[in-house]
Automatic annotation (TrEMBL):
Domain Glycosyl hydrolase family 13 catalytic per the UniProt entry, residue ranges: 10-431
Organism for this UniProt entry: Fontibacillus phaseoli
Family to which this protein belongs: Belongs to the glycosyl hydrolase 13 family. Sucrose phosphorylase subfamily.
The protein, known as: Sucrose phosphorylase
Protein's GO biological process: carbohydrate metabolic process
SMART domains documented for this protein: Aamy
Swiss-Prot/TrEMBL keywords: Glycosyltransferase, Transferase
Organism classification: Bacteria, Bacillati, Bacillota, Bacilli, Bacillales
InterPro entries membership: GH (IPR017853), GH13_cat_dom (IPR006047), O16G_dom_2 (IPR045857), Sucrose_phospho (IPR022527)
Length: 489
């Protein structure tokens, strides 16, 4: 299939009205001409943690959200994007629960990475662990097998609990490949058109390396799963938070990638009223990307922008974000912090709030995103110009909840009455419908406090002009009759 070069929505299954059935109705009633690019539904499967990212199975939809029938119904009108956490599965999954009962004689034992698959004697070596890009203090969890009483140490890259809720899969195992094949075939049968490979950077564990995006081994897996996806007419989107050079390697291999650099670049441009770094970046980046400003995690900083930012300047920007109510996710491993100790992994906030709830600044940010080459994704909180949900952070103790507010139908209708949201919808319609966005892109010369970007295709031309001193955003374009038109965003 070909991905549509139009705007996509990112949402949890229950974030716009409480269920998949209501999501379908909300899309029909309020946004029927808005998300022509597709709908990324964050994991709707039964899950034991991490708001869906610790799935028990991919063959069922969490009953509280709805059913596969609801996914199919949304998929009849929109390209549906779902996640596969290729690195791990839930501790509560039937597969791992059977392993906990029976240990190595379980038919599912080979799905998992017991430590003897890493170290021959099964004993972890701290010197090896010190080299790894860690997401928790220790990359394994210890379990007791019920029937034998024996202890088993199993690799767990992620998870806030001990033992972890997210158990790593052994992607070298034929049983894992069979499981992934079954998952993809089930997706195809239920109208899923795009699959995001979540946490794919962590799948290869190799001693002496960071165990993150290990080359060339990772390409062997990516080639295998791309062949599987191609055979089912499914597009792939690998999700890799890493040094930008790794993203570019993925692009060279023909994969779609995420532009995890753009959200920070745009924020820096609007806060500091200087577009030089943004304009330089836009002239060099690969075009085959999905673009975003906000998501369910945060604005990426390290390692995505390593080598692209001055940490002293970054600290100032982070301090501004903190003053505006943001909170931070930090790097765990000392070895992967900056030399001066800078350790910000992500800035967690609503993008509207981090721009001081300034309508003009927010629309300028979206206009830059929509003009940057790629497939634009709009997170549901950003769609409704939602603000930081600090109450939910206090209630749950989870910093990411700041940007995960669930909207009732009443709240959606209230948001649709806001000028900033109506202006954003008009901008999305223009991005979806104007033909030049399938043509050629240029960054035009401009002063440091201006952004000027242009798309042309045949007789069609549209030019974005942003004055950063006022955040005034204007699009000049040529309509189908050849008339020059000015669109004040």
């Amino acid at each position: 299939m070909a991905i549509h070069n139009q705007v996509q929505l990112i949402t949890y299954p229950d974030s716009l009205g409480g269920s998949l059935q209501t999501l379908n109705r909300v899309l029909d009633e309020y946004f029927c001409d808005i998300f022509k690019g597709g709908i990324h539904i964050l994991p709707p499967f039964p899950s034991s943690g991490d708001r869906g990212f610790a799935p028990l199975t991919y063959f069922e939809i969490e009953p509280a959200f709805g059913s596969w029938e609801d996914i199919r119904a949304i998929g009849e009108k929109h390209d549906v994007l779902l996640d596969v956490m290729v690195n791990h599965i839930s501790r509560q999954s039937a597969y791992f629960q059977d392993f906990l009962r029976q240990g190595r004689v379980s038919p599912y034992a080979d799905l998992f990475l017991t430590l003897d698959k890493i170290w021959a004697d099964g004993q972890p070596v701290q010197a090896d662990i010190d080299k790894m890009f860690l997401r928790r203090p220790l990359p394994y969890s210890t379990f007791t097998i019920e029937e034998t009483g024996e202890e088993e140490k199993v690799w767990t890259t992620f998870g806030k609990t001990d033992p972890s809720e997210q158990i790593d899969l052994d992607i070298h195992s034929d049983k894992v490949k069979r499981l992934l094949t079954d998952i993809f075939e089930n997706f195809r049968n239920n109208n899923v058109k795009i699959v995001r490979l979540d946490a794919v950077g962590y799948i290869i564990k190799k001693l002496g390396t960071s165990c993150f995006f290990v080359e060339p081994e990772i390409y062997g897996f990516l080639d295998w799963i791309k062949e599987l996806a191609d055979s089912l007419d499914i597009e792939l989107l690998p999700e890799v938070h890493s040094h930008y050079s790794i993203q570019y390697k993925l692009a060279e291999h023909g994969f779609w990638i995420y532009d995890f650099i753009l959200p920070y670049r745009i924020l820096d441009t609007l806060v500091n009223k200087n577009a030089e770094a943004l304009k330089e970046y836009l002239t060099k980046r690969p075009a085959k990307q999905f673009t975003m400003l906000d998501c369910h995690d945060g604005i990426p900083v390290k390692p995505d922008l390593d080598g692209l930012i001055d940490t002293k300047e970054a600290r100032k920007l982070v301090d501004t974000c903190l003053e505006r109510g943001s909170n931070l996710s930090l790097i765990v491993s000392d070895e992967h912090k900056a030399e001066d100790g800078f350790d910000v992994h992500q800035i967690r906030c609503s993008y509207y709030s981090v721009l001081n709830s300034d309508d003009d600044a927010y629309l300028a940010a979206r206009a830059i995103q929509f003009f940057a080459p790629g497939i634009p994704q709009v997170y549901y909180v950003g769609l409704l110009a939602g603000e930081n949900d600090e109450e939910e952070v206090r209630r749950t103790g989870e910093g990411r909840e700041i940007n995960r507010h669930n909207f009732s139908i009443d709240e959606i209708e209230q948001a649709l009455g806001k000028s900033v949201v109506r202006r954003l919808l008009a901008l999305i319609r223009f991005r979806n419908e104007y033909g030049a966005f399938n043509g050629d892109f240029r960054v035009l010369e401009s002063a440091s406090n201006e952004v000027r970007l242009e798309w042309t295709k045949g007789d069609l031309r549209c030019t974005l002009h942003i004055d950063l001193s006022t955040n005034r955003t204007v699009i000049d374009y040529v309509d189908a009759e050849g008339t020059s038109v000015r669109f004040e965003v």
